[in-house]
Amino acid sequence: MTFRQFACNNVLRNKRMYAAFFMSSVFSVLIFFVYAMFIFHPEIIGQEIHESVATGMMAAEYVIFLFSFFFLFYCVGAFLKKREKEFGILFIQGMTPLQRNMLIFMENMLIGIVSIAIGIGVGLVLAKLFFQFAGFLLAVKALGFYFPWKAIGLTVVAFLILYAAISLFTVLVLRSRSLLDLLQGSGRPKREPRASLVLSLVAVALLGMSYALALTADGVNVLVLMLPVIALTTVGTYLLFTQLSVIFIDFLKKRRTFYWKRTNLLTLSDLAYRMKDNARMFFLVSIVSTVAFCAIGTLAALAGSIQITVMKINPFAFEYQSNQSDVERAKHLSLIETSLQQGGFSFEKYQVAMRVLPEPVNEEKIGVVKLSDYNRLAVASHSPELQMTNDEVFVMLNWIGDSVASKTLQVGNAQLAVKTDTNMTPLIKGLEFERLAVVPNQVYDQLPKAKEEQRFVYEVPRWKETQDLSLKLQDEISHFDENYSFSARAPYYHSMKQMANMALFIGLFVGVLFFVAAASFLYFRLYTDLEYDKRHYGALSKIGLTDAELTRIVTTQIALLFFVPIVVAIIHSMVAFVSLQSLLKLILVASVVKPTAIVLCSFVVVQGVYFWIIRNRYLFHLKQSMNR
After folding, report:
1. pLDDT (tens digit per residue) in 117-162
2. Ramachandran category for residue 231: left, alpha or beta (phi over 0 → left; psi -120 to 50 → alpha)
3. Residue 166 to residue 176: CA distance in whole angstroms
4. Phi, psi (rounded to 5 degrees) for 431
5. What is the strand order of the sheet 366-370 is part of?
6. Mean pLDDT (the chain, rounded)
7. Which residues of 135-227 form beta strands (DSSP E)?
8. Which whole-number Å values give the CA distances from 413 to 369, 391, 538, in the listed order?
9. What are the Cα distances from residue 403, in Å, to 224, 396, 431, 433?
10. 93 to each of 4, 86, 89, 159, 180, how far by Cα in Å?
11. d(C-alpha 464, C-alpha 310), whole Å
């Protein structure tokens, strides 16, 4: 048998242990390759698809590549640690450290080459499906299939470099151990798990502090506190699994009525060692899952609220505003109405007048509109109506966080008390004023007509279908004129929807990649303990452990392994979403509750199915070993 065949046989003999690692590698290659196909697609810079799609996917490529490096590097290091006894035997047979390093390099490159080949092959098979899915999300015609030579070249080169770098780094960081330590391998006696009460309290304090900061942050303060909260949560989570979990298990073991009940003694005795051994893995799964939940949930919330957001920013399907110097008003209004009629669109037209106050207030020109006209527009756009007394003026805030310093406002001969509402956005914008004020009818009627502006708005029930018509009108009516302005909702809506769905398309697969990696961590840790568990439970079965008791113990331990980090990730994510809701209000995102619930429930269901499959397979191997 040649050295190359020996390396191949090593991989095949450990195929069960390498399965999750291999599948995660294939999935990473697949997603990287699919995005590369989009980036190099000849139609990606066409008229319908925005160039930012390629930019966003390029950013995702970097994320996938960096994440794959750290994920694979961790997995390879953990695999080698489990093979210490094997290397010890090989050293007795005469293997040199250089040959060991060459063996590791060849094994990693073998897995890498096969992963690249399968990932690219699956990507080519599913390319048409991915193109159709992207076309659906981006609301454009699906891209045609092409043979992606550039994408294949980029993927092959990138991942060959990745696997070569991982193999090199792994060899460099291998610690020199004595032959006795290598031969003992994972069979070395384990020390009693110990934890620090002080560090456990620090974990509680750090997580409590991070949750408090996240839950109390408001608006732009969320961005300011984001990095401190992430740092506190990360350190707190690490201490939670390495310290607090051991303290909690010790606490349960001291409660004799619970500890000695049924099989709890066996479960808890082994659980303390497992929690300590798997603390780093639990930490990684929790953090990676939290990132996946938050990314997908936030992007889903953005994509799901585009229509509401656009309707708040553009209350009407078409808006035309002109001042007294506009000589083309009649021509433009006729063009808009004729185009709508010829296109078969029914519409309602509304007209309001606004007058500009002669004196600026706090260096801002103020435009005023009468209360009855404003409420007429509010009813037409399904916005809240205003209620105020005859000695009040409602001053609109231009953005969230905006404020008005003046307590009163002089409008003509009336001194009116200023009233505002941070939850309301102005329905009207001006050509010659920066801020809108709504005044009582009688106050408006007494103002001089100098500097009066007229606003014409069109409510169109089928406004989403006016995309082509809107683009045509935008070409025919100039945007850059100081005497009038024209805007249409449909082009803005389609552009925003395309951008949001593009972000969701990119983030969805990257988030799923993170979740698959987290599942691979769990699978790996479970099956690396399989041989030990076979010996352990085999010995217990000889002194009376029944199949039902074995099933109960193993189910409990695997359930904790699968769901403890996921529960921690869900708690982290829920706190993060509460904080993000405050931030997303700045861009008029209504709510993250529904998309958050859908995302979290979907991941829990998938994790539950994965747990059920792995648990049944694991029990099958254990019972098969015990019955021999």
Report:
1. 998 998 888 888 887 777 776 666 666 777 888 889 999 999 998 8
2. alpha
3. 19
4. -85, -40
5. 408-411, 414-419, 392-395, 435-439, 366-370, 348-356, 452-459, 318-322, 484-488
6. 79
7. none
8. 16, 12, 96
9. 21, 9, 21, 17
10. 17, 11, 6, 34, 14
11. 11
Report residue 156 CA to chain centroid gap: 27
pLDDT of residue 47: 46
Backbone angles phi, psi at 321, to 5 degrees: -125, 140
Pairing of strands 414-419, 435-439: unpaired
Give strand ranges (E) for 357-395.
Answer: 366-370, 392-395
- Is the pLDDT score of 20 beyond 80? no
Pairing relationship of beta strands 414-419 and 392-395 according to DSSP bridges: parallel
Which tokens belong to 434?
């920066």
Tell me the C-alpha distance between 389 and 286, whole Å. Answer: 55
* Distance in angstroms (rounded) separating the CA atoms of residues 402 and 519: 46
Q: Which of 590, 499, 594 is nearest to 313 (CA)?
A: 590
23 contacts 14 by C-beta, under 8 angstroms = no
d(CA 456, CA 428): 10
pLDDT computed for residue 94 by the predictor? 77
Residue tagged 């008390």 (tokens)? 417
User: Secondary structure of the chain: what % helix, strand, coil (to 5)?
Assistant: 70, 10, 25
* Cross-strand partners of 321: 455, 485
What's 364's DSSP letter? Answer: B
Length of the chain: 628
Q: What is the pLDDT of residues 203-253, one digit of tens each?
A: 889 999 999 888 887 766 777 778 888 889 999 998 888 888 878 877 777
Which two tokens mark 626? 């015990």
Three-state secondary structure call for residue 574? helix
pLDDT of residue 411: 81
Q: Answer for the pair 323, 451: CB distance below 8 angstroms, yes or no.
A: yes
3-state secondary structure 422-472: CCCCCCCCCCCCCEEEEECHHHHHCCCCCCEEEEEEEECCCHHHHHHHHHH
Beta bridge partners of 394: 419, 438
Rounded-to-integer distance, Cα 163 and Cα 210, Å: 37
Collapsing DSSP to helix, strand or coil, 320 comes out as strand
pLDDT tens by residue, 354-387: 888 888 877 788 888 888 888 888 888 888 888 8
Q: Dihedrals φ, ψ of 369, to 5°?
A: -135, 145
Q: What is the DSSP letter of 49?
A: S
Q: What residue type is assigned to position 468 of the chain?
A: D
